[in-house]
Amino acid sequence: MTYRHLPPGAPRKAGGESPIALLGYPPEIASALRDSGIVALGLPGAPLDEVLAACETLGFLGALIHADVQESLAPHLYLDPDARRAGRADAVAFTGGPRGTYTAPEALLDALQQRGYTGRSASAMLIGRAHDLQVGLGLARLGFRSVTVVASNRPLAEQVLRGFPAGVAAYALSRDDRAVQSLAERCELIVLTGGRMPLGVLQPFHTVIDLTGHAGPLIEQSGSTELRLPDFPLRVLSRQLEHVTGQRIRPELLETVARLLTAGQRI
Q: Which pTM does this prediction carry?
């Protein structure tokens, strides 16, 4: 097998350390990681079977995976429970075979618990488009009595809801369903994971988590309360690197990279 899609001279070792592959990311991400002391090399996101085989052959420690490649990569990996539930992987460790994980749900849960947020006896609504809604799977452990998922279409919403435990009242809606507004009025928490916030959904009693950066004006106009999670991208990156390297990296070393990742993957 030839690896013509890899950059010429891709190293088995870089700087005396095993490098990390970046699949589907722009070059500045690799540069920022190297500035943080992490040896990284950007690689194409296709063809996946050849790229993964090359990563193992060339001695890469693991890989960080861009959102555009996460779902198509999953069938090529041994997935942990989080990745299996989401049907995607955002980080891969090559030690012991290509092992994939999906860190975003746990990172979101970490960020909320750090702020003392609890969903016990409350109701939540997740609003997104498709893959982005998988980020909300971590909310299943916050004790919500009901969860409504609003996606581009109802089958996608139903697919996301399958990741929530039995016993939670669950509703699946498409974004253009007339019931979205009435069900939102019964929720305390609104989480926007992708796309735009539907008009007329937000009310003054809502707490809103906006993972897109687009909903600020609507949140302000509605009088609802925004729960900001500025450390969420940092927590995702920290968990990804821990899966890849087996080591915890000081968060302050990752802030620049986390900002670039967020800017490059606005949903």
A: 0.83
